[in-house]
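Design a sequence for this backbone.
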């Protein structure tokens, strides 16, 4: 037989006929299906395998380490990733979307129907997990050798259904249909210990050593998912760890008839990576969570050491080969684990190991919320990780000695800086550990990074001011514009050239067109089409009819009091009452769209969902309202659904209490898609407003400084209730039971607002209503609105995650991207 050219045998030809053939081969040979009997899901799997061949092929060429001196690699340690559906994204990145469409069409298969089959990996809660995935996308795009390390949860974030107006959580069985993207790497499996005790020994040079004798060992199996970049020959790797028992189950117990005992350890081990904790910005405090954190941190560091060894380098060169980013404190225990690996396993001296550790890690803080700051009871920590507790205590003792020497007599400083919280029962403060063990600490927007230095890590910022920096978050324009908004993309390519998805600052070329009436008309057409597409989906999922010509007012994000969905709802209900009082009131038609999941145990968040569905039930079919207001709760907000929602937004609600939202990224996605923002001076809103121009942004509300002042001087929500008639009537209306379910239904929410109002909803109600009035006024002038919308998109170039990643590369990781900057 004649030998084939390597490319043909790799099935990675890019002509429609070649893709068609590869697809048919996979259908038959990988899936064992005759084309005539193949289901839509088989089609999906076959196309996914076809595309995976292309991506993996790129991967082996780009990750091979051909260079004489290997580049420093980036390891992004994150307990969460939210990649979204892979297939369409890869097609876009590889430039194969249209070819694949043609190839399938020749077999009478519709690409869109195939794309619908994919289950997205919901391995995260919200912003933090999605940011990690945007960053992998950009790392691949700008050409940095990188691995995103995390956990292969068997069950990701729950699927949300709405029943009788309430959230119901359904188990996310994302792996049930098979996962064509991942490659299991048995050779990369690592063992991780838990519990047990430590013992001392003396090495050949008479030095005191410690070893850890864990009580149990769990195996981490590696599963790799390649992440392609836009128009790039690099791929990033997402390497997720699945926990398994190290041994087969206990046959001795089994033979003695003790079946429970026989499988106990196996079950315990497998449970470790079973499920994602579904709380956002909230400390879990559960032992299993700490086990998850240590499990993936340890597997990942051991993996880096293994790769280092393959490159012929030793552990003393660790920091030269790896820059490790801690995505929040979830992997902060990695600081202690790297120390253990270096001193106990590789027998380095403490000082050298500590230098390497600090040169390796950097830490990103994502929240100031006190209930989200991780701390572990010292006893629990010591029982699970006895050696790590010893190491942390040693790190702390040495650190505090340095502080004592620099600030003699300032014991208060010692107590505040200590990694151990000793005000009562003792805790390990994970943010302190991450900060002490890192060379750089960053916040995720300018305001937030300042607040990190003034609040949670103020004492550290005082002693190490140079350690702190900001990297404002970004989002990938590939998924959130090019894929999600094809109509807009065509327009952008015509107006700003085709390169904008990889060079987002090119969008500034649009500026001039904001004054072009013809262009504005096209712009509005695209938005209207996107809104019609969403309206159809809304009807399909909720039965609610909406008018695509009405103002689409969108608040999609996790449900949380600090994000203040209830402020939005109070405003909606006040508009409703206004129309009821005066049917001629001049209020332009609006569709209010909410989406987002509530943590299953977060009672008030679930009340907020219920009140939004109740508002819809009350308002949507009220003949007096006559369709002028509609309220929709769009169920199961996830990456796939988000791709329909963002392009359809006219107005983006970013109304958190100032100082609470670290950055926000939905704010960027909507503005980039031409929505105008109504928002507080919080997180990245501040920078978005600066970028798009204050005249194209609806600002309202207390500033972070004013919020702190109110918090110091005391807040009196009842005063607002009593002095503001509109507010009082709205609250009384809810309390009266007019929303159904009896007058007691929303009592907890009302009582919370009137008695505590921790997020100053009542204090900002008036200003919010006035800003909404300005929104309505601009909306009545569609040409002015379109102009502002175009300018939003045109000026959002800064918020590409490519820019963020280049900043991390240059200022934090000290690595050089393969692709030169724009
Ligand atoms: C912050 F602390 C946390 C968390 O546990 N989960 C999470 O999604 C978010 N975040 C912030 O709330 C957002 O403001 C920010 O944009 C996002 O992280 C990414 O930095």
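Sequence:
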């Amino acid at each position: 037989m004649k030998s084939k050219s390597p490319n043909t045998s790799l099935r990675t030809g890019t002509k429609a006929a070649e893709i068609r053939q590869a697809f048919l081969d996979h259908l038959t040979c990988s899936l064992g299906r005759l084309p005539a009997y193949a289901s839509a899901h088989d089609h999906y799997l076959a196309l996914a395998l076809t595309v995976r061949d292309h991506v993996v092929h790129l991967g082996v060429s780009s990750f091979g380490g051909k260079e004489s001196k290997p580049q420093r690699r980036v390891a992004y340690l994150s307990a969460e990733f939210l990649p979204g559906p892979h297939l369409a994204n890869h097609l876009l990145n590889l430039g194969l979307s249209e070819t694949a469409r043609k190839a399938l069409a020749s077999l009478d298969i519709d690409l869109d129907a195939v794309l619908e089959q994919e289950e997205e990996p919901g391995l995260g809660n919200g912003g933090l997990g999605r940011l990690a995935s945007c960053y992998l996308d950009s790392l691949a795009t700008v050409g940095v050798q990188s691995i995103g390390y995390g956990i292969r949860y068997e069950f990701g974030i729950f699927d949300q259904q709405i029943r009788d107006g309430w959230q119901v959580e359904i188990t996310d069985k994302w792996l049930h249909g098979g996962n064509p993207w991942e490659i299991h790497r048995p050779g990369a499996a690592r063992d991780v210990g838990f519990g047990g005790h430590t013992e001392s020994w003396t090495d050949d040079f008479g030095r005191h050593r410690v070893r850890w004798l864990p009580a149990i060992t769990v195996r981490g199996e590696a599963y790799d998912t390649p992440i392609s970049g836009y128009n790039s020959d690099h791929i990033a790797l997402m390497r997720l760890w699945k926990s398994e028992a190290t041994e087969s189950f206990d046959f001795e117990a089994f033979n003695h008839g003790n079946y429970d005992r026989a499988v106990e350890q196996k079950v315990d081990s497998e449970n470790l990576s079973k499920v994602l904790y579904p709380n956002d910005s909230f400390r879990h405090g559960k032992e299993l969570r700490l086990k998850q954190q240590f499990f993936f941190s340890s597997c990942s560091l051991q993996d880096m050491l293994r790769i280092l060894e393959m490159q012929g380098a030793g552990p003393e060169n660790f920091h030269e080969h790896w820059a490790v980013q801690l995505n929040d404190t979830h992997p902060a225990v990695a600081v202690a684990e790297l120390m253990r690996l270096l001193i106990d396993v590789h027998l380095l001296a403490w000082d050298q190991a500590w230098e390497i550790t600090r040169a390796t890690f950097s830490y990103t803080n994502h929240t100031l919320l006190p209930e989200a700051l991780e701390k572990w009871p010292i006893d629990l920590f010591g029982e699970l990780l006895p050696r790590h507790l010893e190491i942390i205590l040693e790190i702390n003792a040495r650190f505090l000695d340095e502080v004592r020497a620099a600030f003699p007599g300032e014991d208060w400083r010692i107590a505040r800086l200590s990694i151990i919280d000793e005000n009562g029962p003792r805790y390990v403060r994970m943010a302190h550990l991450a900060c002490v063990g890192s060379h750089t600490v960053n916040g995720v927007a300018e305001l937030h990074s300042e607040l990190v230095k003034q609040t949670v890590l103020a004492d550290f910022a005082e002693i190490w001011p140079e350690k702190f920096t900001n990297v404002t978050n970004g989002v990938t324009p590939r998924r959130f514009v090019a894929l999600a908004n094809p109509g807009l993309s065509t327009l952008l390519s015509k107006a700003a050239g085709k390169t904008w998805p990889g060079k987002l600052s090119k969008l500034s070329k649009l500026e001039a067109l904001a004054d072009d009436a013809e262009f504005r008309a096209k712009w509005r057409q695209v938005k209207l089409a996107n809104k019609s597409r969403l309206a159809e989906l809304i009807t399909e999922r909720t039965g609610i009819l909406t008018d695509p010509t009405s103002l689409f007012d969108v608040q999609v994000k996790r449900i949380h009091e600090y994000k203040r969905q209830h402020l939005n709802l109070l405003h909606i209900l006040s508009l409703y009452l206004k129309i009821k009082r005066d049917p001629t009131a001049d209020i332009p038609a609006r569709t209010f769209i909410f989406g987002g999941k509530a943590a299953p145990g977060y009672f008030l968040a679930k009340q907020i969902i219920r009140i939004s569905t109740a508002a819809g039930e009350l308002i949507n079919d009220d003949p007096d309202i006559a369709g002028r207001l509609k309220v929709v709760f769009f169920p199961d907000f996830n990456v796939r659904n988000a791709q329909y929602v963002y392009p359809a937004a006219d107005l983006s609600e970013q109304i958190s209490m100032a100082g609470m939202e670290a950055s926000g990224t939905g704010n960027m996605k909507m503005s980039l898609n031409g929505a105008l923002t109504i928002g507080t001076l919080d997180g990245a809103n501040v920078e978005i407003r600066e970028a798009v121009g204050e005249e194209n942004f609806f600002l309202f509300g207390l500033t972070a400084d004013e919020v702190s002042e109110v918090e110091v001087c005391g807040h009196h929500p009842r005063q607002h209730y009593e002095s503001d008639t509109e507010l009082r009537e709205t609250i009384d209306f809810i309390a009266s039971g007019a929303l159904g379910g009896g007058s007691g239904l929303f009592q907890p929410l009302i009582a919370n607002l009137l008695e505590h109002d921790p997020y100053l909803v009542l204090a900002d109600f008036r200003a919010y209503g006035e800003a909404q009035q300005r929104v309505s006024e601009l909306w009545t002038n569609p040409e002015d609105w379109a102009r502002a919308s175009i300018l939003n998109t045109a000026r959002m170039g800064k918020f590409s995650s490519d820019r963020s990643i280049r900043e991390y590369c240059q200022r934090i990781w000290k690595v050089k991207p393969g692709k030169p900057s724009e």
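Residues 1-6 have pLDDT under 50 and may be disordered.
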